[in-house]
C-alpha cells in the first residue's frame, strides 16, 4: 500500500504540474488583463507616461514580458517554495487572502456534504428496496429535479420566496448590518443564518446525482445471488440490507464521492457569487474576471490538488470497504 500511495502521489504531482501549465497558458491568452487596466488608469493621470510605456514597464515588473514557458517556470520556482505571489486585485499576498476566505467555503461545503450523504444514501436505498412504488417514483422525481435545475434559477427562486416574500433571510452577504455590535455567539449565529440559503442551494443541486447513483447500485446488488441466498437462510431484512447489500454498494459510492469535494468547491463559485458569500469561489471569480494571474493560478492549483487528494483517499477507502481489493 505504501508503494501504491507513493506512485499515486508522483502521478498526481505530474498531473497538477501539467494542469497548471495549461491553465497558465490559457490565462496569459485571455482578452482581459489587470496589467492593461492598470496601465490605462495610470496613463489617465496628469503628467503620466503614455499607455504603451506604462504597459511595457508593468509587464517587465510582473514578469509578463517573456514567453509563456518562461513566465510559467518563473511562477513554479516561487510556488514550490510556498510563495504564490501578490494578488493584483486584492493588494495582499495570495496565501493571506486565501486563508481569510477559505473557511467560509469549508463550512458551507462541509454542511452540504454531510446533509447530502445523510439524505441521499438512505433515500436511494429505500427507493431500491421499494422499486416501482410511489416512494421510488417520488425519490426519482426529486433526484431528476435536483439534477436538472440550473444554479442561478434555483438560487433566484429561493431568494425570491425566502428573502423577498417571507423576509426570513438577507438577499446577499455573510453578515447582517448589526454584526459588529453583536456578541461572539450572536455573530456565529448571524453567519450561520446567512449560510442557510447557500447550503440549501448546493444541497438540492447535488442530491440528485448521489441519490440516483445509490439507487442504481443498490438495485444491482439486491438482484445478486448471494442476497437471495441470505434471504433464503432466513436472515432479517435489516441484516441483509445493512450488512450484505450496502457493504457491496460502497465501492461505486466511494468512486462517486471522490469527485464530490472538488466539484463542490468548483461549483460553489456560482453559488457564492449569486449570494455574494466571500468564500474562495466568489473571490476567485473576481480574480479571474479581472485578470489577476497570481490568485487565479493559486485557485486552479488548489482545485487540482484537492482532486488528486480526493482520488488517493478514494483508492485507500476501497481497501477499507472491501478487503478483496489490494493495491498491486
Describe this structure in words.
A two-stranded antiparallel sheet has the order 1-2. The chain has helices at 2-28, 34-43, 51-61, 68-79, 94-129, 134-148, 151-165, 184-222, 225-232, 237-257, 260-275, 280-289, 293-321, and strands at residues 86-87, 92-93. The protein has a domain at 102-321: MetI-like (MetI-like fold, Orthogonal Bundle). Helix 8 crosses helix 11 (260-275) and helix 10 (237-257) packs antiparallel against helix 13. A hairpin with a 4-residue loop joins strand 1 and strand 2. It has 13 helices and 2 strands, in the order H-H-H-H-E-E-H-H-H-H-H-H-H-H-H. The mean pLDDT is 80. It has 328 residues and is mainly α.
CATH superfamily caption of the domain at 102-321: MetI-like
Structural class label: mainly alpha
Report on the biggest sheet: 2 strands, antiparallel
CATH top level class name of the domain at 102-321: Mainly Alpha
Strand percentage lies at under 5%
Quickly count the helices: 13
Question: What multimeric state do the chains show?
Answer: single chain
Task: Summarize the helix and strand pattern as letters.
Answer: HHHHEEHHHHHHHHH
For the terminal residues, how far apart are their CA atoms?
8 Å
Mean pLDDT: 80
Give a count of the beta strands, DSSP E runs of length 2 or more: 2
List segments where confidence is low: pLDDT < 50 over at least 5 consecutive residues.
none
Amino acid at each position: 500500500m505504501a508503494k501504491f500511495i507513493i506512485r499515486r502521489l508522483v502521478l498526481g504531482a505530474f498531473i497538477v504540474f501539467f494542469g497548471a501549465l495549461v491553465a497558465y497558458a490559457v490565462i496569459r491568452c485571455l482578452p482581459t488583463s489587470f496589467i492593461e487596466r492598470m496601465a490605462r488608469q495610470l496613463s489617465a493621470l496628469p503628467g503620466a507616461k503614455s499607455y504603451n510605456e506604462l504597459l511595457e514597464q508593468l509587464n517587465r515588473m510582473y514578469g509578463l514580458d517573456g514567453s509563456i514557458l518562461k513566465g510559467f517556470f518563473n511562477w513554479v520556482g516561487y510556488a514550490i517554495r510556498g510563495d504564490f505571489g501578490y494578488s493584483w486585485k486584492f493588494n495582499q499576498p495570495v496565501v493571506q487572502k486565501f486563508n481569510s476566505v477559505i473557511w467560509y467555503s469549508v463550512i458551507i461545503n462541509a454542511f452540504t456534504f454531510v446533509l447530502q450523504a445523510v439524505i441521499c444514501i438512505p433515500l436511494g436505498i429505500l427507493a431500491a428496496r421499494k422499486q416501482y412504488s410511489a416512494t421510488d417514483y417520488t425519490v426519482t422525481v426529486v433526484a431528476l429535479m435536483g439534477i436538472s435545475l440550473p444554479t442561478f434559477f434555483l438560487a433566484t427562486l429561493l431568494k425570491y420566496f425566502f428573502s423577498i416574500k417571507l423576509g426570513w433571510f438577507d438577499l446577499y452577504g455573510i453578515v447582517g448590518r448589526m454584526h459588529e455590535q453583536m456578541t461572539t455567539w450572536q455573530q456565529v449565529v448571524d453567519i450561520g443564518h446567512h449560510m442557510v440559503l447557500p447550503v440549501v442551494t448546493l444541497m438540492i443541486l447535488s442530491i440528485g446525482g448521489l441519490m440516483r447513483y445509490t439507487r442504481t447500485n443498490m438495485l444491482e446488488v439486491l438482484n445478486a445471488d448471494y442476497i437471495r441466498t441470505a434471504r433464503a437462510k432466513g436472515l432479517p431484512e435489516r441484516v441483509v440490507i445493512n450488512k450484505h447489500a450496502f457493504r457491496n454498494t460502497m465501492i461505486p459510492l466511494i468512486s462517486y464521492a471522490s469527485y464530490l469535494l472538488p466539484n463542490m468547491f468548483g461549483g460553489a463559485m456560482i453559488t457564492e457569487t449569486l449570494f455574494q458569500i466571500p468564500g474562495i469561489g466568489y473571490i476567485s471569480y473576481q480574480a479571474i474576471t479581472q485578470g489577476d494571474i497570481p490568485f487565479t493560478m493559486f485557485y486552479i492549483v488548489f482545485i487540482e490538488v484537492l482532486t488528486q487528494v480526493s482520488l488517493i483517499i478514494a483508492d485507500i477507502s476501497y481497501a477499507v470497504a472491501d478487503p478483496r481489493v489490494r493495491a498491486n
